[in-house]
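Bump. Still looking for VTT domain-containing protein structure tokens.
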Amino acid sequence: MNPEYLLHWLGDWALWGTLIVVFIECGVLFPILPGDSLLFAVGLFIAQGTIHVPLWLACVMLTVAAFLGNVSGYYIGRFLGTSLFKNPDARFLKPKYIEQTHEFFERYGPRALVLARFVPIVRTFITIVAGAGRMDPKKFFLWTGVGAVIWAPGITLLGHALGNVEFIHKNLEAALVLLVLISLIPMVVEYFLAKRRNRRSPDSSGDAPRHAAPR
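Sorry for the wait, here they are.
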């Protein structure tokens, strides 16, 4: 799980290993992977010359891996449907998540997919639930693509920009932890904004009828 160790261990295959991790974390039901920190470390290693790949090419490849991971997650949810959500006591795949996620997308629109990119674990399961909830494919592809373009190159470029900063080298582990905490900020902000909107809404009492996700 240590991105620096993992990239050194992969050696010449560092970028390819990162592509696999990003793909899996973005939609193949295995969320506990160091996606953010790996992207940052890849940018840093490219700046150092440890990874011998042009920065622009790495950004393109990582964006494609993130996008395809989400597409895979979407179709896993779409084809398996509610069979993923049978156990009401499950830690992640609870039946109520289908309806709640449908309502979440209806309320927040494309922001849901873009914001979720920056939150570990959430970025894996939101695609599964989007597929199970039958979100419109065109809308999903468009906005998960927007999220991939912002997320993968954004964090990689940040790592590259800081790649020659001595303080970052000496405190890389602390810098990666800080990166994960910063990545949670958009979702925390959206959470409090949503609570504020709910307090102002006349239907916030919870008496409004719910609409089940389309099958």
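The longest helix spans residues 55-80.

Edit: fixed formatting.
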